[in-house]
Design brief:
Layout lengths: L8 E6 L14 E2 L2 E2 H10 L6 E7 L5 H9 L3 E5 L4 H11 L4 E6 L7 H13 L5 E3 L13 E4 H10 L3 H6 L2 H4 L7 E3 L16 H14 L7 H10 L14 H13 L1
Helix pairs in contact: 3-5
Length: about 260
């Protein structure tokens, strides 16, 4: 286990109020609770994560995010709005993180069992710098989990130049498999066509519908949603046909403009 009995695993939840596609979505109400509250609860349900830090920006509009982190008793860090890689790096230093789990606050269905599965895999393979279920996606979009060592984060922080690498934290790592030892963890069936993230109004309708069916005050899991979608197939049609990883695709286009 990386040379010591207990590795300090820290989940860093990146969150801000500014969103081009769905402004204020981080604190949007989902069955009587802000989205970020649900995300924090889901990460708190993980067995492998020791500390949670909400990493937001110094912008005035992000103050409510800090307040919410306080209500949930989790740490917070404020940093750069554009350079999210720097925000992660500083938050990791602040919490003495040895292993970092990257969580995005616009994923209402993060599954603690999926997170634990990937963190455990990473911890049991000390040669790894990075493990995720996203390089070749087989899980529903929105169940993305990325786990990496502090050293890998530090290397990316020192070397990454592209704007998209700074904004999306991990691409510098997974784009350079010759530098970093990376693993992609697959689900036994390919569910990557399912869209369980929050970018558009349709996604919000889908999220609220699923929560209304399944949320009774405690965390429900991927399997619960899959069973629900079998029983209520029309739900999956609510937000069908939106391209995967739309934010990262947009950043790649912006990279081109800066060359």
């Amino acid at each position: 286990m990386r040379g010591q009995s207990k590795t300090h695993v820290v989940a860093i939840i990146q969150a801000r109020m500014g969103s081009t596609r769905l402004p204020g979505k981080t604190l949007v109400d989902i069955v009587g609770k802000p989205l970020l509250g649900h995300v924090i609860e889901r990460v708190q349900a993980c067995q492998t994560i020791e500390d949670i830090v909400v990493a937001t920006t110094t912008a005035v509009e992000d103050q409510p995010i800090l307040d919410l982190a306080g209500q949930y008793g989790v740490m917070h860090y404020t940093g750069s709005e554009e350079d999210v890689l720097d925000r992660f790096y500083q938050a990791a230093i602040n919490t003495s993180a040895e292993v970092i789990v990257r969580i995005t606050a616009d994923d209402p269905f993060k599954d603690p069992q999926v997170i634990d599965h990937i963190v455990s895999y990473f911890l049991h393979h000390p040669e790894l710098d990075y493990a995720s279920n996203t390089v070749e996606p087989t899980y529903p979009e929105g169940l993305d989990v990325e786990v990496f060592s502090f050293k890998a984060l530090e290397t990316a922080w020192q070397e990454a130049q592209r704007l998209s690498d700074r904004e999306h934290v991990t691409p510098y790592i997974w784009r350079n498999p010759q530098t970093f030892c990376i693993a992609n963890i697959k689900h036994h069936t390919d569910l990557s066509h399912l869209r369980w993230t929050l970018d558009y109004e349709e996604d919000l309708h889908f999220t609220r519908a699923v929560y209304e069916h399944l949320y009774g005050g405690k965390v429900f899991l991927m399997e619960d949603i899959l069973i629900l979608l079998q029983k209520e197939p029309q739900l999956a049609g609510i937000n069908k046909g939106i391209e995967r990883n739309i934010g990262y695709q947009k950043s790649l286009v912006e990279d081109e403009h800066h060359h």
